[in-house]
Amino acid sequence: ETVRRIVEAAPRLGIETLTLYAFSSDNWRRPSAEVAALMALLRRFVRAETGRLAQAGARVTMLGRRDRLPAGLAAEIAAAEQATAQGTKLHLRVALDYSARDAILDAARRAAALPQLTREVFSRLLSGGDHAAEPAPDVDLLIRTGGEQRLSDFLLWECAYAELLFVPCLWPDFSAGDLADAVAWYAARERRFGGVGAAAAAAPAPAVTPVPSAA
């Protein structure tokens, strides 16, 4: 329910890209019963929401490894990505079995074979594709729920200039109003990107990345 209401609210708030941290690579260390329950929940979400997301004009992509997912789940995710590929109202990215450090290492290995490397090219490699792939977007606003104040190995490269907002409410209680408040807070920030005063950039509609407290 939380994901549904946030996904519905995001386009109304001018958000074009929304990234959700569903399951980190380190979360495999949790009790097997908890992991199994989380994977079952993800499977139910994919099955129940793909049609609704496609109808709403959302495009879904997954970040992270797929080779360790339960049997059939990777195929269902790929089908959801294909079914929503034409969506233009919102890019919903779901980080599943994801580690930013692993993503950076993998991109660095592939970058070693390139004759010339730039930040943009490296961002494309971080997307999981080759140097011609769609670049990984910079995060404008990272929202951490549950009162925790850490990044939990999430989008470390992309968060270079992200505004960080830590909120006390738990992810299941995070509402469309909370998201609107976060966007208003972000809009009031002076984003300088290393500059000062007149050099500060006006804050555009944010690429938002909520990190649930369980990450």
TrEMBL record:
Family matches, as InterPro entries: UPP_synth-like, UPP_synth-like_CS, UPP_synth-like_sf
Pfam families reported for this sequence: Prenyltransf (PF01255)
Keyword Mitochondrion: no
GO BP terms in the entry: polyprenol biosynthetic process
UniProt KW keywords: Transferase
Top-level taxon in the UniProt lineage: Bacteria
GO CC field: cytosol
Cofactor(s), by name: Mg(2+)
Cross-referenced Gene3D superfamilies: Decaprenyl diphosphate synthase-like
GO molecular function: ditrans,polycis-undecaprenyl-diphosphate synthase [(2E,6E)-farnesyl-diphosphate specific] activity; magnesium ion binding
Signal peptide interval: none
PANTHER family: DEHYDRODOLICHYL DIPHOSPHATE SYNTHASE 2, DEHYDRODOLICHYL DIPHOSPHATE SYNTHASE FAMILY MEMBER
Record-linked NCBIfam families: uppS
Protein name: Di-trans,poly-cis-decaprenylcistransferase
Organism name: Rhodoplanes elegans
Gene name in the database record: uppS
